[in-house]
Specification:
Chain lengths: ~280, ~250
């Protein structure tokens, strides 16, 4: 399943120049993605979201992105113009953002937003777009698609909003979906419903999925493979189910610092940061 | 230490009555840490706020430290309960230094020896003397939550109410704050109520846990029952299963 690489990244660096010097948000990151579920885990400021955005060319102009290789389905992403990106984004690769409250357009109905994506990328008529939107809403398990089609984002609950966003990102049938904390604003029970929808869609459509999250339990149970980021670097890569037996001291510390439902610990381990990890 | 019987909270929103909490009854013994778990909108924070007197409530009994917690509370009543809120970015005044923030409760309650108490409180929560004259924006999220905890504890209250104290923090920082809370409840012999959506966090700190759904308590269980899954209600089981992570149904 992972033989064929969808995305190849080698030596990715993202720098943000600032008044006090350059902030190196991502440093020398390399990984490959096939048609699989890849998790990227790290704490705030580890560079996981920045890396996700770099893959989609969504960083602000002030950021400098350099890499030895960054290619998607054989296409070099490093020399893409804004026009090239527009052809890729939405149609070929897409991103689900963390909070539907801030990422959906508040003054357009759900149906119009999703339909717009469909008309833009697939060149369908308004009528076809409506049909596709309704069936997509059904695919993300919204009970009454006709009703939700006419609602505005503020009328949706968090879980529904997130499903709408997933529907919007998947309607143009991209091969790669980057999900940035897609469930962290949701309750646990809803979280798993949304994950199940993503899981089904990824399997049925043979997509590649990058799941960016700080939640170790979720990533280790959902993904096939996990990258652990610290200070802009990928410090470890391992199979998701082996996360509890990880090698890198940072990964081990993170696992030990997470309260568990299975074992009672008198005290949680705290993370002692080693400057060596940044070398 | 805390007795709640038939507590209900009703909000009036746009001409409608919304029952945020209904028929809530539980007791918390002295020195116990009681947990309340539920999903968003289950009324868990509302119950905590009602006990603190931050929202109006009705109940047949609401007693704190053997005294009825009336709607109008005296300063002495208020001093017994201190609150730590979820978001350390929002609960600290941005234009007050740590020193100002910690001084205020002492001044309100006219307690003497302010200087020594502030120094001691800062050391107690693991901050350094140099943090005393910093502003909240000069501190990290974990340091800010430490300041909020110091502010709550500076009056030496017998009861601490914690509303999602670690949900805005990274795992590594969360571990530090949970350890700090565990240590402080020992040294201050605190009675506390911890509200959280995270079952693992609640199971880590609490002895008994109330599961809430739609404004009501579904059941009250022990932390060991939570771990072993020996629970009666279907909703609790569903919540536990969901907290253990994603379960792929084999195709």
């Amino acid at each position: 399943m992972t033989n064929e690489s969808l995305l190849i990244v080698e030596g990715l660096d993202v720098n943000f120049p600032g008044r006090t010097g350059v902030t190196r948000a991502v440093r020398n990151a390399s990984f490959k993605l096939g048609r699989e579920r890849l998790g990227i885990v790290g704490e705030s400021g580890s560079g996981k979201t920045t890396m996700g955005r770099a893959l989609l060319g969504l960083l602000p102009h002030t950021a400098t992105v350099t890499a030895r290789t960054m290619s998607y389905e054989g296409r070099n992403l490093l020399n893409c113009t804004e026009r090239d990106w527009q052809q890729l984004r939405g149609r070929r690769m897409s991103m689900v953002m963390q909070d539907p409250k801030y990422s959906l357009n508040p003054v357009k109905t759900v149906g119009r937003q999703i339909g717009e994506t469909c008309m833009l990328h697939l060149g369908t008529s308004r009528k076809q777009a409506r049909q596709r939107t309704l069936s997509m809403l059904e695919a993300v398990q919204i009970r009454d698609p006709e009703l939700v089609h006419g609602l505005y984002p503020h009328q949706l609950s968090g879980g529904m909003g997130q499903r709408v966003m997933i529907a919007m990102m998947l309607i143009a049938e991209p091969d790669l979906l980057i999900a940035d904390e897609p469930t962290s604003a949701l309750d646990v029970t809803v979280q798993n419903e949304v994950l199940r929808i993503l899981d089904d869609l990824v399997r049925d459509r043979g997509m590649g999925l990058i799941m960016i999250s700080h939640n170790l339990t979720m990533v280790s149970s959902f993904c096939d493979r996990v990258l652990i980021m610290y200070g802009g670097r990928i410090v470890e890569e391992c199979a998701a189910r082996d996360l509890t037996n990880a090698q890198h001291p940072y990964t081990r510390a993170l696992v030990a610092a997470t309260p568990s439902l299975d074992v009672r610990r008198a005290e949680l381990a705290t993370v002692t940061r080693d400057p060596e990890w940044l070398k | 230490m805390i007795t709640v019987k038939d507590l209900s909270v009703t909000f009036h929103v746009g001409g409608r009555d919304v029952r945020a909490a209904e028929a809530i009854s539980f007791e918390v013994a002295a020195g116990e840490t009681f947990g309340i778990v539920g999903e968003s909108g289950s009324g868990k924070s509302t119950v905590l706020r009602a006990i603190a007197g931050l929202v109006p409530s009705r109940s047949s009994i609401l007693e704190v430290d053997g005294r009825p917690a009336a709607q109008r509370r005296s300063r002495a009543d208020r001093r017994k309960l201190q609150f730590v809120f979820q978001d350390p970015y929002a609960s600290l005044h941005p234009r007050q230094t740590v020193d100002d923030i910690l001084r205020e409760p002492l001044e309100i309650h006219r307690v003497g020896g302010i200087n020594d108490k502030v120094i001691a409180a800062i050391a107690d929560v693991g901050l350094l003397p140099m943090h005393r004259f910093r502003y909240p924006h000069q501190l990290s999220g974990g340091q800010r939550q430490r300041v909020a905890i110091a502010r709550a504890l500076i009056l030496k209250p017998p009861i601490l109410l914690l509303d999602e104290p670690t949900s805005a923090l990274d795992v590594s920082v969360q571990a530090e704050i949970l350890n700090l809370l565990a240590r402080l409840r020992q040294s201050y012999s605190l009675t506390s109520i911890l509200v959280s959506h995270d079952l693992a966090v609640v199971a880590h700190l609490c002895d008994r846990i109330a599961i809430m759904q739609l404004g009501r308590i579904v059941e009250v269980i022990g932390a060991d029952d939570l771990r072993s899954g020996a629970v009666a209600a279907g909703y609790t089981r569903k919540l536990i299963a969901a907290s253990r992570g994603f379960a792929r149904i084999p195709a």
